[in-house]
Write a structure and sequence with these properties.
The complex is a heterodimer of chains A (387) and B (338).
Chain A lengths: L1 H7 L22 H9 L4 H27 L24 H13 L7 H19 L6 H21 L17 H26 L4 H16 L2 H15 L8 H27 L2 H9 L4 H31 L11 H9 L9 H36 L1
Helix pairs in contact in A: 4-13, 5-6, 7-8, 7-10, 7-12, 8-10, 9-10, 10-12, 11-12, 12-14, 13-14
Chain B lengths: L4 H13 L7 H8 L2 E6 L7 E2 L5 E2 L1 H14 L5 E6 L4 H6 L5 E7 L2 H5 L3 E3 L4 E3 L1 E6 L13 E6 L3 H12 L4 E6 L2 H9 L5 E5 H8 L8 E3 L7 E8 L3 H19 L7 H4 L5 H7 L5 H5 L5 H8 L3 H8 L29
Parallel strand pairs in B: 1-4, 1-5, 9-10, 9-11
Antiparallel strand pairs in B: 2-3, 5-13, 6-13, 7-13, 8-11, 8-12
Helix pairs in contact in B: 3-9, 3-13
Classes of the chains: A mainly alpha (387), B alpha/beta (338).
Amino acid sequence: MSNSVSTNSPSVSFIRKESTQALPPPIRATGALAWIRDNLFSTVFNTVLTFISLALIYLMLMQLLHFAFFDATFTGQDRSACLSSASRPEPGACWSFISTYINYFIYGSYPIDLRWRVNIVYVLFFISMVWVLWINAPKRAWGAISFFIILPIVSYILLLGAPSLGLEKVTTERLGGMVVTFIVAIVGIVVSLPLGILLALGRRSNLPIVKVFCVIFIEFVRGVPLITVLFAANFMLPLFLPPDLNPDRLLRALVAVVLFSAAYMAEVVRAGLQALPKGQYEGANAMGLSYWQSMRLIILPQALKATLPNIVNSNVALFKDTTLVSTVGIFDFVNTLQASFKNPDWATPVTSTTGWLFAAAFYFVCCYSMSSYARTIETRLAIADKR
Amino acid sequence: MKSSLISLTVGSAITLIAGAVSAGTLDTVKSKGFLQCGSNTSLAGFGQPDPQGNWKGLDVDFCRAVASAIFNDPTKVKFTPLAAKDRFTALQSGEIDALVRNTTWTLSRDTTLGAFFGAVNYYDGQGFLVRKSMNIKSALELNGATVCVQQGTTTELNLTDYFRANKITYKPVVFAGSDETLKAYDSGRCDAYTTDASGLYAERLKLTKPEDNAVLPEIISKEPLGPAVRQGDDQWANIIRWTHYAMVTAEEQGVTTANVDEMLKSTNPDIKRLLGTEGKFGEGLGLKNDWAYQIIKNVGNYGESFERNVGAGSQLKIARGQNGLWSKGGLQYAPPIR
């Protein structure tokens, strides 16, 4: 019937042969515009909030941009360049102060003609760190050896010198700035993790003496603030030791930081150990694995994976806590910064603000890259769970 | 501002323990090959690192002068930057050989902390900073003024005492940190700002318009700053003390870094004794006879060091005032070298 209609009267062929092209979804339902509509302007109240927030962000951002760039001073030999003038009544950041002092921030008081040694350490540190952290890097085992064995030895020899190798000796007082910040942070992170794992295992051990020792250590260290530990290491230790057996100031602070963060790390790892179902431990025993084998092959890989966000969290916190060593007279980055504020050649109303802005940028870059890297690792480890 | 209970108790404990630190600091220093000097972590004009990381300042110069007297070499000195709480422990434990860190000489530090102050290399004291537009010439005219001061310091106590003694009314505005205190003054919150005079000159540079502000002539407290050593080593104490006196004597006699070589030929007996061309005064100290020559040659006399670090040659531009020579109305007076 229908057939006859279509063939007999082609002028009224109202039945379509092919479907029309699909229209794009209405612009209000998907895409950026829809997102904006749904999230920012869904109700009158939200619309008002959005505009208020935008205005606030604009105001703050403009203030920051004006201070950091538009009104900032980039060249100049001394403070006079950064003072207010008729053409610029509200001077912005004094970046020429940072550029004058940048070498001091990076190297501290390290002898200028020996700074190539610090540069080598920086380069070696950067290469081996990327090598270890880059998951698809070739021969990562070598990277690990370079980071954990070669780097510490070479840095020690290069930074402090070895007269037998023809390298002039440099005392730790000459170390300063970011060098010290990195040393304290890296040593703290690298040493405290294994130490923390041992303490965590010890705390869950069946051996009473080991257990009591670990519990006492962890609880004692967790019970006092880091600054107290630093003060004790710095002021009290020399009183109990004979004068010629006086450990180096930087070493004292390093030991204090390591012990302190190890106690925190131990609790983080213990959380992971306790989160594992008992069956994992029993399974490992049933396989006939020894204690260390079962820990290495079954328990720790799972426990550490579970606590990775917390471990990174502790490490980021530790990196920022390194600034506390400045209170005991060690010239880490923050202390070099504060020392430079006092220079009368550069004392202006904006000098310290500029310095702190620079410090904030430095710490943000370091901490943010740590946490972004950790997120990549987490995503990678999570693949196993999705299977 | 400069004392605390902790340092007192720790100090009295350590005087007992550290009695064991043996005499003969000079021999120790000579065998080490360098002088270990306790310095400030950073104080404008007195001791602070420059952009190259070298230590500069009045106190730093003093350490270099001692090193010159012992080793004929001003670079044979290492600096241990010390926090205020840290300094006496470091001295007592033998970590440093001398404490040259703008430390105020007080009775309790001589008695309970076991420190020995050899000399006064800077007479400091509390002063006032006011805006020039106020047209004030003396602190006594500050009647009814608001004064910005840092909380919980001896500065605050001195301020109260001074105004009460002179029967002047004032309104204190206290802040926790020194930066906030200064900002408040800068923003016009107070008429005057008070702290140690040497600090006033340094803080003034952080103001929006430093040239519109002036330091009043009155100094309302005594803060004699000087180098300190451990008690019980008289030879070492003498070296520290006479290093300062040699620098003052050199200024008195007009001996400078530039003309010291010429001055060796001088016939003036005072200069001859100072530079070691007559008598054996250096040997008496356990040093070489040209000890003072080395100090002046390498570091300069007291006036040179003062002008270079805190005086006209620096941004601070502190007037000599009490730190001038006794013959010019100041307090710097050196006993004769003879």
